[in-house]
Request: fold
Amino acid sequence: MKKSLAAVAFAAVTVLALSGCTDTGADTATEPSGSGELTKIRVASLPIAETGALWAAIDEGIFEDHGLDVEVVPAQGGAQAIPALLSGDIQFAVGQPFGPFRADLQDLGVVVVSNYASSLPEGKDVNAVVALADSGITRPSDLEGKTVSVNSLGAAGDLTIMKAVQDDGGDPATIEFVEVGFPEAQAQLDAGNIDAAWVPDPFMSKIVAEGGALVVHPYQVTIPGLPLLVNIATQKLMDSDPELVEAYSAAMAEALDWADANQEAVRAAIVTNMEIPEAAAAGITLPKFTAELDVDALEQLAALGVEFGVIESEPDLDRLIKQQ
Reply:
């Protein structure tokens, strides 16, 4: 059984943030600027540390240099942003790959235009399954029969956790996954509503620093270097405004290269936008920021999705991936 805890209120906020007014959010618009006209676009992204690259690049003026005025709106995951993309409320989204996977299986006309961030193949990764110190959970197989939270059900989080548990000799079918927003995970652990949580930084490092156990980096033990987040658009936008998609893709590629080389600026943006202490931001493990998409890794992820029944069939990656 899969259920949702502490997600209803967050989802309501997400809907409000993504909906906008139809006369301002449905179409792009231009406004005068000292360096020419800027095209206004709305980009949905999760309120997590990885978005620091986007926030910092906007502050650096990289998107303006490409003629874009970017508004970042919060979303819980790529899947939740898909309806807003299709309605034209937003033009682009940064989200996990499974949102586009499912959209392609429904032939909704969603495309992945580039990568955004990838997990780290070794060392400390950017997300982990964590548990309280007194839980007795220390390795993947210990998650058998437990309640584990992820931010979005039926995506890379619970899928790679199931694979990690299986490879460690446990039965992944006995795990109860529940949907909890990353910021609420620690409260749910403390309340005893969940046994373990899959979270990125800063939540991962905070829970571990306060005595929690880091159980496993599920991406590393299943598909090292897996794309964490990708840039999502629609085929309709590509057909109707290819110049906009090209400008966004070029700006994003430059932004991600810059962010990867300027991690202190990314951390400063995290402090400002997530309202966390500088010391906490300094301890965050950042991903590899890159627009280059590892298609082989996405193929492996899709195959795992079919194996564990998360999706019925693999998406058509030739149709879905439109690397710019």
Q: What stands out?
A: The chain is about 40% helix and 20% strand. The chain has a mean pLDDT of 89. The longest helix spans residues 242-261.
